[in-house]
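Researcher: Good morning. I'm working through a list of sequences from a screen, and I'd like to move beyond sequence-only analysis. For each chain I'm collecting a predicted structure so we can compare shapes side by side. This is the next one on the list. No need for commentary yet; just the structure.
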Amino acid sequence: MPVYFRKERKVWYIRVFIGGKRFICYTNAAGEPFTRKKDALQFEPVFISTLTDSGSSKKIKCDEFFGLFMRDARLRLKMTTYTGNEYCFKKHIAPFFEGMYIEDVTNSYLEKINSTINKRKANTRIQIYVAKKFVKYLKKTKVDLDPERLFLAKRTKPNESDYKIYSEGQFKQFASVIDNESHRFLFTLLFYYGLRIGEALGLRWSDFSDGQLHIRRSLLRFVDAKGNQTVSTPKTRNSIRDYPIIDVIKPFLEGRKLTNDYCFATKTEHYSALSYSEARRLTIRYAKLAGIFRIRLHEFRHSCVSWLLSNGMNYRTVARWVGDTESVVLSTYSHLIPGEKDQIAVFLNGGIREKKTENVTAAA
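Model: Good morning. Structure tokens for this chain:
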């Protein structure tokens, strides 16, 4: 937000740039100075609206608000979330508004944006979310805008068709063609621990200590302004967790010094750990060699959850294993259990037969 502190006066003030001009406000509507940052933040939309009520909104382009919008997002959001939103805004949302005057942004234009985004095949949810946030920001200067014109259309196909998963046998077939020990270690972690790809790529050898695997960081998909990889804490509080080291990964740790180096290191100018794009190319290569269908990196996590649930693990236990809440596992992964309805039908049919047998025995 464009709010700053003036040391000599010990007050907060608002500074915005609109139409290439700078506007500063030191007092609220009652003429009182801002002694708290909170007061200045609350008055900021009122101040901007006073600048545009006189008709100066015709001179304001949406581009003027791009930097302010992202600065506000950076203050509100966690780094992991912010980097994703920033990338989405610059690539998918900003092009809709570049060069447009705010007065030209109408609700009918928002409906066109909504239709365009919903026709896209991937990442529609995050695009709608970011676009709606930006429209709410523009609403400070044009109050008749309706952010609710942007919404995620109802899906016409079931979620089951959105996911591909490996069974344990299919994963072993996939892993059998991997001749690189580091790559085999990566995919083993993804399948048996259900790690998010960022958590796996951010692992250091020192995270394997005291007989446990400690998840404390996540490598972000996006790079910083200098092109370097960035690291943040895991996605949620539940994602910070400790695992027992299972037998299947012990061979990869034998004789290994627990240094602070990345487990999946690479030697390039800006990248010290394996990148998302390189990991994705590995899945394509090894799936082709194994003669098996390819799944996305995050679908190794889906495969882990599905495999655990289908083998009788309860939802709470699985949620703690993969660092999610029980409600997320119930809503996201329950449909991945193969033959779920068939199992219930067999159980019910078996129960009915037993009751019939009991009745016949009692009658005799």
